[in-house]
Structure formats: structure tokens, C-alpha cells
Amino acid sequence: MTRALAFVFLLFVYPSGWLALWHVFAVTMIIGAVEPLFRPTSMAYIAHILPKDLLQKANALLEGTLQTLMLLGPGLGGLLISTFDVSVVVMILVVALGSSSIILLLIPSHYGHKEDERKTWLRDFTEGLHFFKEYRVLLWLGLLLLVINFAVGAAMPLFLPYVIENLGGTETNYGLFVSAFSIGMVLGSFITGLTGTPKDLRLTFLSCMFANGTLFVFLGYTSVFAVAFIISVLQGLAASLININNTTYYQKRVPEYIRGRVFSVRFLLAQIGIPIGAGLGGFLAETFSIKLLFISIGCLIVTTSLMALSLRALHDLNDKTLDKPVEMSHNL
User: Fold this and answer.
1) Whole-angstrom Cα distance, residue 258 to residue 127?
2) Residue 235's pLDDT is what?
3) Which tens digit of pLDDT belongs to each residue from 35-73?
4) CA 100, CA 281: separation in Å to the nearest integer?
5) What is the pTM of this model?
6) Confidence (pLDDT) at 111
7) Cα separation of 325 and 142, whole Å?
């Protein structure tokens, strides 16, 4: 509903001719601010309502649906804008988001572990941090995601100049290149939904991470658009395998009463790397070159994945005796 109201603001400002750039920034910041509330809550809710044996397929279905719509959304939005008007498109967004919020209100509420004392947000968040301290495997998974998102944050803002300058492409090529990642994510979701949880989860995580880094290195060296397109598809596929299996593992291992708090900390760990990477990536690309930046972040991911092979905590990923959710100590 907050997202819908943010677009309502644009709906009133745009036709009047008062729309300024800072209005768009403000709306974007509001939409970004509610994402860390929506995403962790949705992940925790899925784990509440589904049995463990269905979590992998459910996450694959949700990820595949998300990436399919992200693939179709920009093209559909551009078609609607060219056919009608920006106001019509914004109105569609308001109706879609508002209707979604009403549908969400109709789904059953689920209350897990009930507490006698109502805690502050800071104390809830601190307990989520404490959980990561006790169970290092989850902490290391979060840190590995941070490294990957740092690399993605550094690369994404530079994809347009990369396609235009390094690959000699056009704006159309840029659109195809960006869509390639979503195509890979959809393929990865389909594969994950069919195959289920890998037998060796640790090896799957680190192999996909190693592959993603190697593909970044190849992306820096290639000057052929078709090759870069295929590389982006493969990167999306590897990212999908990491995301879905990672989310499912958290859902199975974290106790119900603290699941939302832990997902919030996980979201923070993963997402904080994106703005840092974007700032540093832009500086390095301008100082040196986009090619060198891609090669560097690829080497960073590869090195991190190889170093992670020696982490004893990650061996818990394959410990079948830990299938039941872990419990926190009560001396918080």
C-alpha cells in the first residue's frame, strides 16, 4: 500500500507539470525503504505455511515468477507509454499495487512464538544478530551473499556504457543484455524446481559462486555481444541456484519465532554490498576501465569462493542431523 501511495503522488504531480527530478528520487527511496520490510516478511511467511518438503519448489516458483515479470515488465511498460501516456501507466501501477495489498490483507494471519513482552525493533534486530553469532554457517552464507552483491552493485550501473563502448552495441543490445540475466534466473528456477535440494549444498553454493566470478572475468575480456549475452544468461542461472537454495536453507534451519528477525539481518547483510559496490565500481571504472573492473570483481568472487572451501562452518550445510530448526539459548 505504501508503494501504491507513492505512485499516487506521482499521479497527481505529473499531469500538473510540477514534477521535478527530486520527486522521482523521493518516490524511489520510499519504494526502496519498504523492500526490506516486505521481502524478509514474505520469506518468513512462506516457511510458516508450507511443509519443509515443498519449500524448495515454492521458492523456485516464486523466483521464476518474479524474474519472468521483471523480464516482461520493462518492455510492457515501454509499450504502454508509447501507446498511451505516462499517467495511464502510473495509474495501472497504483491499481495493481493497491489490489495486491487488499489481497494480502485477506490471507490468514500467522502468529508463531508469542511473547509476553512487546519488544522494540532494536531488540528484535539485536536478537537476529545474536542468532547469526551463535550459528556461524548462516553468518558465512550472509557474508558470501554480501560479496556477490558487492560485485553486482559495482557492475550493474556500468552495463550501458559496457554494451555501447566495449561491445559496440546499441540501446537495443543493452536491453537484450540486461534481460539475459533474468532469462538465466528463470532457467535456474525451473531447474531447481525439478531437481530439488542438491545432495551437496556446500559444493553447490561454492561452485555457483566460483562460476559466477569466472564468468565476470570472461565478461571483461570479450568484445562480442553474443558471447556477453550467453555469459549473462549463465550468470543468472548460477545466481538463481544460489538464491533459491540459500533461502530454503534459512527457512528450514531458523526457528519460527525468530525467522522474520533473522531474514531482516540476512537482507541487510546481502543488500549493503550493492550501494558500496556501485560507488566504488563507478570510481574504479572511471579511473581505469570497465574491462579491468569486471576482471577484478570476477577475481574477487573466485578468490572468496576458494577461500570459503576451508571454512569448517560451511560443512554444516550438508549435516543431515541438523534438519530440525535450531533453537537459540535463552540467555539473550
Assistant:
1) 8
2) 94
3) 878 888 888 888 888 888 888 888 888 888 888 888 888
4) 36
5) 0.79
6) 54
7) 18
* pLDDT of res. 296: 93
Q: Tell me which of 162 and 17 has the higher pLDDT.
A: 162
Q: Got the DSSP string for 235-274?
A: HHHHHHHHHHHHHHHHHHHS-GGGHHHHHHHHHHHHHTHH
- CB-hemisphere CA count at 13 Å for 274? 8
Q: Nearest CA to 219 among 202, 199, 233? A: 233
Within the chain, where are the H helices?
Answer: 2-16, 21-49, 52-83, 86-106, 121-134, 136-155, 159-161, 171-195, 201-221, 225-253, 259-271, 273-287, 290-308
Report the 10 Å Cβ neighbour count for 66.
Answer: 14
Distance in angstroms (rounded) separating the CA atoms of residues 37 and 3: 12
Look-up: residue for cell 576482471?
295
- Please state, in angstroms and rounded to a whole number, the distance separating the CA atoms of residues 131 and 330: 11
The one-letter amino acid code at 51 reads P
- In terms of residues, how long is the chain? 332
The pLDDT value recorded for residue 120 is 61
Cell 534466473 belongs to residue:
185
CB 153 within 8 A of CB 210: no
Pairwise CA distance, residues 229 & 162, whole Å = 12
Please state the separation of Cα 86 from the chain's center in Å.
28
